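Q: How would the structure tokens look for this protein?
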Amino acid sequence: MLNFKQPKLRDIIKAPAAIAKTRKALIQLYRQKRQLLTDDPHWAHNDAALAEFGASYTRLFMDKLWESFNEAETIGDSELLAHLWLQVTQQEHGTAIHVNYADDQGANHLLFTIDQAMQTNAHLTAHHLPQLADLNAEKPHYLLTDQMFPALLKMINLLYEADLRFLSPQETILQPVNGLHFNIQFPETKTMTSTLKVSNNVATPVKINLEINHYAVRHYQVTDESDNDVTDLGKTNLSSQGTFSWQAKHLPELTNQTLTLTVEAVAIDALPCLDDLFVLASSHNILMRAGKDSGHYQLELPNKQALGLDVDSVAETLTLQYPDENTQIYELCKTYPFLGQWLEKTLATASKK
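A: Here is the predicted structure in token form.
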């Protein structure tokens, strides 16, 4: 249902097969044309026709994607590509592109999908791709041969460059380490308080200090003697020495009242997953150190690269950082198997919360 003589479509077809640019251009054109259709009464609620219309644009994106794979180094002349075929399918709210692998017996295996391919929230979903349990097994068994992995890694990196990503590290080890983001287990929250009587001297600012040391603040509140919330009357600050402060200009309406600062915080230097990683790294003579900022840690790996770990105590998450944005979990954990073991245990523990 596409008119290939249409100038904008012709430009997309003739343009170099850059996945991100192709997808952006097609989505823009698809939305414009779909809006024109839905403004017409006989198309507005014609679900079958609209679905086929969306599938037409998705098929063009699929063909340009295939073109990009064929032109990419590592993929174009690979054994993997000789076994792959792509397919457009309908979903409840759009279309998907299936990346299928045909084995030597002719059986098809769905490796992964690009879900909601023509939507801005499109993402990858793994189906028959290796996971951490496969990597950490005594005798790993993969659907693909070792010779096929470089091409598949390159393929995933190309899709990530186009902002098409897997939604969680549990899905597969074929995703970049840098930016990997997941929930972790935290210890119980601790409640700490500090009080201050407001001076009747108008020149004296109100400042309540509380030593929280290596704890991270999740929530705080300041109340007066009648338990009224006056938090918004001041501002907070956390010093590098671990002093949490709430400060306000003189509050005449609260003169001679005692204010209470209540802080709920969690000890981020006592996270089970970080303790586990420290022990594992030490057993391999790898240094793990705390960064300048609270909640930031680094592993100094033998390959002269630093694996960063950033803790978010409010969201209860850990984000990994790695200098080479294309290095995937599979590659790093093949080099340092203890990282794969640690990551599998960390994800499994967090999922039991």
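DSSP finds nine helices and 15 strands in the chain.

The chain has three domains: 7-161, 181-185+271-351, 190-267.

Upvote if useful.
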